[in-house]
Write a structure and sequence with these properties.
InterPro entries: COQ10_START, START-like_dom_sf. With 337 residues, this protein is of the alpha+beta class. It is built from eight helices and 14 strands.
Length: 337
């Protein structure tokens, strides 16, 4: 099939210092908490300048646009994002020029390549101009529609970075990372099986009232949950994409519908086996929604109190799940002896 290279370039003003915006672009591993459409980024190789990444993203562009529209308030990423795309990317970082050059497999047109460059130009101490140029090889037969999709993709990505960077002054207070862990005297396979079978959690995990699981592609679960882990026993509905890596003993997830206080939440269940058992780690990366703090927690509540509240709430839920995974694995071993 014949193809034609389509190039497009756009810029947008950002209310953040150029160094802050470049830092966001360079730190791709944190994109799941900054960019609504990004599910997970795995760094495969890095020498300080060049890196190779594998990325998972909500490939439904309409869904991603809806997630962007919600990013300033309301339920972030309320769509489950019809399809999860995955591809490999190579990037070259140029911190002095504040540019990131990239080349990646195209998620919309498999077999073609998208290349380009992110650029950041200062426009004052607390403002900059963010640019994105993309070149995409497109089938000639689909030229008109594909061109519109390519240009919409550039606008969408610029808008996502602009929104995330606009919070730069509060980022240290809005972002929190923490983990819970438990030691289990049992085989990693039993623990992983418990965590993987999230559809069985109602009736097994007390704070989980309902789950819905769709796994059209093996290892990629689209999950909806109703939980009562919030203070006061209030039911909270969330949705998430889970990427399951059984051979590595990992389950990575990104919430696409979050509670009111949470603007973004990604995390990972990871198993660290040893000679006599396994240590299971539940890691969380969270961005708070500042405008929801007072309406949810009461007037006069600050971000520090909100951080403590969200950490205690999520930690309580993950610790309970880890404890039940421990009971499941160790009691099964006792029965088999």
């Amino acid at each position: 099939m014949s193809s034609r290279v389509h190039a497009c370039e756009y810029t947008v003003g950002v209310a953040a210092p150029a160094g802050v915006v470049y830092g966001m672009l360079a730190d791709a591993a944190r994109w799941p908490v900054f960019l609504p459409s990004v599910v997970h980024v795995e760094r495969l190789d890095f020498d300080g300048v060049q890196e190779r990444l594998r990325m998972w993203e909500l490939a439904d562009e309409a869904g991603a646009d809806n997630a962007d529209a919600d990013a300033d308030g309301g339920g972030v990423g309320g769509v489950l994002g019809g399809r999860v795309g995955s591809w490999y990317a190579r990037r070259v970082l140029h911190p002095d020029a504040r540019a990131v050059v990239f080349e990646q497999e195209d998620a919309v047109w498999p077999g073609s390549v998208t290349s380009g460059v992110w650029s950041v130009r200062p426009a004052g101490e607390t403002e900059c101009v963010l640019g994105l140029r993309q070149e995409r090889g497109l089938p000639v037969a689909a030229a008109d529609g594909a061109r519109r999709e390519a240009e919409a993709d550039v606008h969408r990505r610029l808008a996502q970075v602009r929104r995330a960077a606009g919070r730069w002054e509060q980022l240290d207070e809005l972002l929190l990372s923490f983990e819970d862990r438990v030691r289990i005297e049992g085989p990693a396979e039993l623990v992983y099986d418990f965590l993987y079978r999230i559809g069985d959690w109602p009736g097994r995990v007390p704070h989980v009232e309902r789950t819905g699981v769709c796994e059209d592609v093996p290892g990629i679960q689209v999950v909806s949950l109703d939980t009562c882990a919030a203070p006061g026993g209030r039911t909270v509905s969330t949705r998430a994409v889970r990427l399951c890596f059984p051979h590595a003993g990992r389950i990575v997830y990104k919430e696409t519908l979050t509670p009111e206080l949470v603007a973004a939440h990604s995390g990972e269940w990871s198993l660290l086996p040893d000679a006599s058992g396994v240590t299971v780690v539940a890691a969380h990366q969270v961005m708070l929604r500042q405008e929801a703090v007072s309406p949810v927690l009461g007037a006069g509540t600050g971000l520090l109190e909100a951080r403590d509240h969200v950490r205690a709430w999520l930690s309580r839920a993950s610790t309970e799940t880890l404890g039940l995974a421990k009971w499941h694995a160790e009691s099964t071993v006792r029965r088999l002896r």
